[in-house]
Amino acid sequence: MKKFLATLGIVLCTFGASFADTTPPPPALVRRVSIFSTSTDWQAITGLLLNEYRGSFKPDSKLIGTKGLELYYLDGFPCYGLGEGVRVWLGPNNKHDGELRIACVYAPETINFSWRNATRDADDGTGTGLITCPVDADGRDLTIDLSKCDKGKDWDEYR
Length: 159
Fold this sequence. Notes:
Elements: H1 2-18, H2 42-46, E1 51-58, H3 61-64, E2 69-73, E3 79-81, E4 87-90, E5 96-97, E6 100-104, E7 110-117, E8 129-138, E9 141-145, E10 150-154
Parallel strand pairs: 1-9
Antiparallel strand pairs: 1-6, 2-4, 2-7, 3-6, 4-5, 7-8, 8-9, 8-10
């Protein structure tokens, strides 16, 4: 009888194990927020006309480094980025690629970028953090002196 019960126990355990859920749990769901700028309504909301502004940069070798500096404009009132005009790469020896083009209800006094040190043809990658720069405006021409910019927190420091 003991032998029968032991065999029955083994059979039941084996049989039960075959029905156990061995599927790995699904990967954690990563939700990405899709941002649709409300800035296209700023003219209606503010009653002010949007104008295109173009930005140029005064380089700073410490910030640019040996590889170069990739900047992505971060939208914020009174401006938002225009298509291909939100990414600018600035390199050593006054090299550059891209042009800052933004639409604004008035010329900004400061401007925010996501930044990282990268070569001109580097794949798009995660920026290092926030950088805020004062802006000098002459009509619709903006000048950003990189030596006067303030580095903010790195992205991994935001919680």
